[in-house]
Amino acid sequence: MNRDRYVDFLRAWAILLVVAGHWLITGLVRLPDGTIRAPELLVAAPWTQWLTLGFQIMPLFFLAGGYAAGGSWERARAAGGTAAGWVGQRALRLLLPTAVYSGLVLVALGICLGGGVDPGTIALVGWAMAMQFWFLPVYLLLSALTPALYALHRRGGLVVPVVGGVGALGVSWLVAATSGAGAGVVGVVNYLLVWGVVYQLGFCWRDRLVGRGPVVPAGMVAGGGLAFALLVGVGPFPVSLILVSGEELSNTTPPSAAMLAWAVAQVGLALLVAPLVRRVVGRAGVGRAVRGLGAVSMTLYLWHMLPVLVVAAAFYLTGLAPQPPYGSVGWWLLRVPWLVLLALVLGLLVRALRPLERRLALTAARVRPGAGVRGPGAWRVWAGVVVSAWALAYFAGHGFAYEGRFPGAAAVGLAVGVALVADPGGCHQERGDEQSGGKAARVGAV
After folding, report:
1. For residue 245, what pLDDT is reported?
2. Burial letters for 249-268: b for 16+ Cβ neighbours within 10 Å, e otherwise?
3. Ramachandran angles phi, psi of 4, nearest 5°
4. Among 28, 97, 213, 425, which residue's beta carbon has the most beta carbons within 10 A?
5. How far apart are CA 162 and CA 296, in angstroms?
6. Rounded to an integer, what distance in angstroms lies between the CA atom of residue 307 and that of residue 235?
């Protein structure tokens, strides 16, 4: 089966917009006493909340992820692989680089805490370095549920995301009816329901249940866009598609009906422009750029906030950075060199991390679970995924140093979770299937 480069393009495009969006809304201010603060742009300049409609691009990640995972699981199953083996191999590709990144950040923050650095500053840095983490536990759990979700897809097709969408609307209504009070109890379900709907649409796209012509995608764009307009204009939901402090309801924590509507519209648009973009991506130069971005996508996603700290130390702590009034025309004009400088630093960082990436790839190949893992080894994989998801969810909600404290339990949880997935009872040694005609081990990691 030929690889669809348009799916790779969607992931690359989404990565670029996530990085640019985080950098754009991160504005630093040096106070008279020399401390650095990061006022919330979406609060200081409410009109910028409309920009989130363009920068909230995560539906494309889940759409592309569902498309790729459906094909990968189908091939692994046909080759004799087990659900635990496939999930373990997929999970390890996400968890190993995440664990290394988290470990290095935690070591640095621990040293700073021990050195007497202001706990408020540590908490701010810890939050900034984990602001992208919300995606990781959700995607990890959806990956773990893929064998079951794909089985539902094979039976129900488009009915599955429709039913999931109805459930998500019900949860969102309960959260709104309680003025956000139910967000922590009931609303957490919507992380899997809303993003699970988009993930299932990826299955449907791969099996050509949607996207065969322009009619259905155009209907998704129109219907999703109209629903979003009504939910925001008439309904109780805010326009911002990322969290804004002080708002009673959020479209992201948990994902709301408005987020679901916008995701449907965005998926429809992605399907609508697919033929045109495929022709562009088919050009040699564009294809190379997409493949290059894909090769470093996890590095970009995890590490893109470190350049903010580097630039802050070089220009803000030293007082070299000009400081026009926050949100003024002059401030916006300075966003251009700000973004360029951050991109240069990130480029150097990606180059410096290449040896680490290669070492991680070798490690993953050595310790990944066998594609046919069963029994106690399988249970260790499932336990490792659950523990890892909990630890990542903690970091996503609290940062790496909540209230200036070291997150010992979450740090240990992530280490234990990764260890369980990486070495499920020594089953990564079970490579007989790989050496005796067993293509399962090769296919399961695709």
Report:
1. 87
2. bbbbbbbbbbbbbbbbbbbb
3. -85, 105
4. 97
5. 34
6. 39
Residue bearing tokens 């087990």: 82
At residue 439, the 3 state secondary structure works out as coil
Return the residue matching tokens 């979406």. 42
**Does residue 443 surpass a pLDDT of 50?**
no
Domain boundaries, the chain: 5-153+286-443
Return phi, psi of residue 220, to 5°: -65, -40
Q: The pTM is what? A: 0.91
Largest Cα–Cα separation, the chain: 69
Beta-carbon contacts of 143 under 8 Å, excluding residues fewer than 6 positions away, are 65, 69, 87, 90, 91, 94
The whole-number pLDDT of residue 437 equals 36
> One-letter amino acid identity for 78?
A
369 dihedral zone (left: phi>0; alpha: psi -120 to 50; beta):
beta
- Give the list of residues 6+ apart from residue 279 with CB closer than 8 angstroms, or none: none
pLDDT tens digit sequence for 142-191: 999 999 999 999 999 999 999 999 999 999 999 998 876 666 778 899 99
Q: Does the CA dihedral 141-143-146-148 come out positive or negative?
A: negative
pLDDT in tens, 255-284: 999 999 999 999 999 999 999 999 999 888
